[in-house]
């Protein structure tokens, strides 16, 4: 009888544990495997990523080799690796700044909807309110700046550009739009602005400092970055479109990158892609050399976790 009673007690305890674990799984946060399924990544052979192709040091496609390089490219590889995609399984497609919200990138003579947009995309409330835009946590902080040819008088405030022709891209968040005494010129690509600047067709270019620094580095002795004294209020995020499960996975990757002391991928990318540009652009600081904070992501790693 004692054996039977003991067996009944053990069975009851096991049942309680099983039911408890089941309830936790059903009511707790999703696991990473759950999120991978919800994001449509299970069994997926390629990760399609929309990137810019004309920003040296950030996202640049070599016209000879067709290879992409830069900080945005390395950030893509960082996240893709944590999602289970090796480098050969990441397919970069060029995207126009105006198409980042729609997540439509070019593939030859047609457009494809990409899984992720990593394209120097500043997080703003106006952009976040657009249909199909859902930003990840920030992965880089920078500030707005002004690029001029060497020999131009130093630019320390917008008023120093009064009456001059200043170029930026059509979708820019630059404060240029608020300046009434400047001749505004818009282009589809920031590289087109820089080409016009080098040719003397315009007087200055404005966008994020870390983007402009790449052109200073690319054209040594010809261009100069001007510090406007604006705080690092430009935060870049990745757009996942309507795939909220993917956003959680991207944030999980960025969280581990930020707080795992053994993970040096972000720091290595900064040193490789952006540190050389910082040297060429002094005294302007082009970007914060520490990865931005990331909120803890609620993902269940063990069955009993709430």
Structure, described:
- The model is unreliable at 8-25 (pLDDT under 50).
- It is built from eight helices and 15 strands.
- It is 33% helix and 19% strand.
- A hairpin with a 3-residue loop joins strand 2 and strand 3 (59-61).
- The longest helix has 26 residues, at 2-27.
- The chain has helices at residues 2-27, 32-38, 71-82, 125-128, 190-198, 209-218, 244-259, 265-280; strands at 47-51, 54-55, 59-61, 68-69, 90-94, 104-107, 110-113, 116-117, 140-142, 144-149, 165-169, 183-187, 204-208, 223-226, 234-236.
- Helix 3 (71-82) packs antiparallel against helix 8 (265-280) and helix 6 (209-218) crosses helix 8.
- It folds into two domains: 41-141 and 234-280, D-Maltodextrin-Binding Protein, domain 2; 143-226, Periplasmic binding protein-like II (D-Maltodextrin-Binding Protein, domain 2, 3-Layer(aba) Sandwich), CATH 3.40.190.
- The protein starts with a helix and ends in a 26-residue tail after the last helix.
- The protein has a five-stranded mixed beta sheet with strand order 12-11-13-10-14, with helices on one face. It has a three-stranded parallel beta sheet with strand order 5-1-8, with helices on one face.
- With 306 residues, it is of the alpha/beta class.
- Residues 46-273 form the Solute-binding protein family 3/N-terminal domain.
- It comes from Rugosimonospora africana.
- Belongs to the bacterial solute-binding protein 3 family.
- Keywords: Membrane, Signal, Transmembrane, Transmembrane helix, Transport.
- This is Solute-binding protein family 3/N-terminal domain-containing protein.
């Amino acid at each position: 009888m004692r054996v039977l009673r003991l067996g009944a007690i053990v069975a009851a305890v096991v049942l309680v544990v099983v039911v408890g674990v089941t309830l936790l799984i059903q009511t707790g946060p999703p696991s990473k495997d759950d999120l991978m399924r919800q994001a449509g990544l299970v069994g997926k052979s390629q990760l399609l990523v929309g990137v810019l192709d004309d920003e040296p040091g950030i996202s640049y496609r070599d016209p000879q080799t067709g290879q992409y390089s830069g900080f945005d490219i390395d950030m893509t590889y960082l996240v893709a690796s944590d999602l289970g995609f090796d480098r050969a399984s990441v397919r970069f497609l060029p995207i126009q700044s105006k198409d980042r919200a729609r997540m439509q990138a070019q593939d030859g003579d047609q457009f494809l909807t990409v899984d992720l947009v990593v394209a120097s995309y500043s997080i703003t409330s106006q952009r976040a309110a657009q249909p199909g835009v859902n930003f990840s946590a920030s992965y880089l902080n920078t500030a707005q700046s002004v690029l001029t040819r060497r020999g131009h008088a130093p630019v320390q405030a917008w008023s120093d550009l009064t009456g001059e022709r200043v170029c930026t891209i059509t979708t820019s968040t630059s404060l240029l739009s608020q300046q009434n005494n400047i001749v505004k010129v818009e282009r589809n690509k920031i590289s087109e602005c820089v080409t016009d600047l080098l040719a003397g067709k315009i007087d200055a270019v404005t966008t994020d400092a870390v983007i402009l620094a790449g052109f200073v580095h690319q054209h040594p002795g010809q261009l100069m970055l001007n510090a406007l004294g604006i705080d690092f209020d430009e935060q870049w995020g990745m757009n996942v479109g309507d795939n909220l499960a993917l956003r959680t996975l991207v944030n999980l990757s960025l969280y581990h990158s930020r707080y795992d002391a053994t993970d040096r991928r972000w720091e290595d990318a900064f040193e490789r892609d952006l540190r050389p540009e910082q040297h060429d652009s002094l005294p302007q600081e082009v970007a914060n050399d520490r990865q931005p904070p990331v909120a803890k992501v609620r993902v269940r790693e063990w069955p009993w976790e709430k």
